[in-house]
Design a protein that fits this description.
Layout lengths: L1 H38 L7 H9 L5 H35 L11 H16 L4 H23 L8 H25 L4 H9 L7 H20 L1 H8 L2 H6 L4 H23 L5 H13 L3 H25 L8 H23 L1
Helix pairs in contact: 1-3, 1-13, 2-3, 3-8, 3-11, 3-12, 3-13, 4-5, 4-6, 4-11, 5-6, 5-11, 8-11, 9-13, 12-13, 13-14
């Protein structure tokens, strides 16, 4: 008996070390995906050339490809993936809803609608200009989804929230289509942006993204202990000194910042926020202090891998990131809904 107990104690003490090593391995995987992103494209660049142009300042063809095209694309992909992975993990934890996702619950659609208002209605074409409209649209859609899906005896049930998000998303898509028809000149810019992609980022977008990403990430990671306490039950969480309303507000602010900046920078990319937290929990278990950083890293890996595959899967041209994430994420969404229905 004593030996079994001591083994459990040793395993419990060694678990943080193993998770930390696993997180470092995940970061190493992300760096490898970043290198792969720099190497892959219609004009392949040798690994040696990539290393050379990263440390040397020249204007050779490989340097132009890496610095002007693939480096901004890779960094934006990492930022967007981290933001979506963290946003999805926060939503799934707070709502105890395994299918919660900025796309499924209508946040992406709301942010997209806000950006389109800026582009079509006000002629704003820069990230710093329309990111605020993305935040406003995301806030509006989130409020509507929870106002509709959170009513009734089964308020906050996964299916109710998913259906409310789908309905709100469909309404916002209809509104955006109407706006495009009213301003045909904006069609090309809207068509590229609404598909969801990181293929043509401006170099300045990288630096404009970072303050929002850092603020949202720091806030998200700081909420891990609070979310662990709430997971024990709202009454016990309150007894442990966690303010439920304050936690919900902070989670909402973090999700809106992260999902809003991701949508503003790359368009609405779905299912990354759904899949990344599930991958994280498969490694870490339910401890949100570890789920959150793992979900951010896995989200970035998913976006970069989708972007790399999209560059090479077609004989000519590229397949957008959002299309590939939907191909992978839609079956996962169906499987999760079916599993929850069977459990119920």
């Amino acid at each position: 008996m004593g030996g079994a107990r001591s083994d459990r104690v040793r395993r419990a003490r060694s678990r943080p070390v193993r998770l930390a090593i696993g997180l470092l391995a995940a970061v190493a995987l992300l760096l490898g995906c970043g290198v792969l992103s720099l190497l892959t494209g219609s004009e392949p660049v040798a690994f040696g050339d990539v290393l050379r142009v990263l440390v040397a300042d020249d204007r050779s063809e490989p340097a132009i490809i890496v610095h002007d095209l693939r480096m901004p694309r890779t960094v934006v992909g990492i930022c967007v993936g981290i933001a979506l992975g963290l946003a999805g993990a926060l939503m799934q934890s707070l709502t105890r809803n395994p299918i919660a996702d900025p796309g499924v619950l209508g946040i992406n659609a709301g942010a997209a609608f806000g950006v389109l208002v800026a582009i079509v209605g006000l002629g704003i074409g820069s990230f710093t200009g329309y990111v605020w409209f993305a935040f406003l649209g995301a806030t509006l859609s989130t409020t509507l989804v929870y106002a509709i899906g959170g009513r009734g005896d089964d308020s906050g049930a996964p299916v109710r929230l998913a259906l409310a998000g789908t309905a709100i998303g469909a309404a916002l898509v209809s509104a955006t289509e109407a706006m495009v028809f009213l301003d045909p000149k904006a069609f090309d810019e809207y068509r590229f942006w609404i598909v969801g992609d990181i293929a043509k980022p401006e170099l300045g977008v990288v630096w404009q993204l970072l303050p929002f990403l850092l603020a949202g990430t720091v806030l998200a990671l700081s909420l891990g202990p609070r979310l662990n306490a709430i997971a024990l039950g709202e009454e016990l969480g309150t007894a442990l000194g966690v303010g439920l309303l304050r936690t919900r507000v902070l989670v909402g602010v973090s999700v809106l910042v992260l999902a809003g900046l991701a949508t503003a920078a790359a368009g609405p990319i779905g299912f990354v926020g759904l899949a990344a937290p599930h991958l994280a929990r498969a490694v870490t278990g339910p401890d949100q202090r570890w789920v959150l950083p793992y979900a951010g890293v896995f989200g970035a890996v998913l976006v970069l891998l989708a972007d790399v595959v999209g560059r090479v899967v077609l004989p000519s041209g590229e397949l957008r990131v959002a299309i590939l994430t939907a191909i992978v994420g839609a079956p996962l969404f169906v499987a999760l809904v079916r599993r929850r229905r069977a459990a119920a």
